[in-house]
Amino acid sequence: MRHGRRKRKLGVDTKHRKALLRNLLRSLVIYKRIRTSVVKAKATSAFADRMVQIAKRGGLHARRTLISHLGCAETADQLIKKIAPHFKTRNGGYTRVLKLSEYRPGDGGDVALLEFTAQIAAPEKPKKKAKTAKLKEVSEISQKVKEEPKKKTSVKEEKLEAKKEPVEKKSSKKEDDASETKKESEKKGGFLGALRKFLKGDEK
């Protein structure tokens, strides 16, 4: 008979429920405190107490049992080496649920904190880079981006200047030729030269 086997189903099927409890317990082992709904916190608390009880036994059999329940060797090792030693003199009550006076914004559900009853140091968060260092990196990148188009334009300008030079030379050659023809015509005289002199009044 199923007397005394009632449990929180959490509105999901069996496989989903097992995976959910495993993931919540892994997060609890890593961060030592998690924030979730009250119902999930109570279900995870009962599951975590059973796993810590197994971890307290130590040995290879306990490790393999934890791996079969959790599906993660790293979590099993942390339970045996880091968490179980804090509860050597305690026979239960390894976790606690603290209800918070706030509600989940999505569906308005009750929110709670799940944590270990012993004082276990949480892992340190990675330090963020200083804003000054970030600003320096951004400024260096922006300078590089600005310099790249300048180089390209300088190459284009050089090409245009190289093209312009022969054109200027050609125009100067044409001007020289015209001046030479004028000088020759003035020296030779001829009809045009006589006409110019007549108009100027040189010739009487």
Question: Cα distance, first to last residue?
Answer: 150 Å
Q: Examine the coordinates and then state which fold CATH places here, giving the name of the CATH topology of the largest domain.
A: 50s Ribosomal Protein L17, Chain: A
Structure summary, number of beta strands: 3
Helix content: 55-70%
Instruction: Identify the quaternary structure here.
Output: single chain
CATH architecture of the largest domain: Alpha-Beta Complex
Highest CATH level, the class of the largest domain: Alpha Beta
Q: Strands of the largest sheet, in order across it?
A: 1-3-2
User: Please, how many domains?
Assistant: 2
What's the overall geometry?
A: rod-shaped
Please compute the radius of gyration using only Cα atoms: 45 Å
**Order of secondary-structure elements:** HEHHHEEHH
The structural class is mainly alpha
Number of helices: 6
State the CATH superfamily name of the largest domain.
Ribosomal protein L17
Strand fraction equals: 5-15%
Q: Any overview of this molecule?
A:
There is one protein chain. By secondary structure, this protein is mostly helical. The chain folds into 2 domains: 14-116, Ribosomal protein L17 (50s Ribosomal Protein L17, Chain: A, Alpha-Beta Complex); 131-200. Helix content is 64%, strand content 10%. It contains 6 helices and 3 strands; from the N terminus they run αβαααββαα. It has helices at residues 14-31, 38-57, 59-70, 73-83, 131-188, 190-200; strands spanning 33-37, 95-103, 110-116. A 3-stranded antiparallel β-sheet has the order 1-3-2. The longest helix has 58 residues, at 131-188. It is rod-shaped and about 140 Å long. The model has no long low-confidence stretch (mean pLDDT 81).
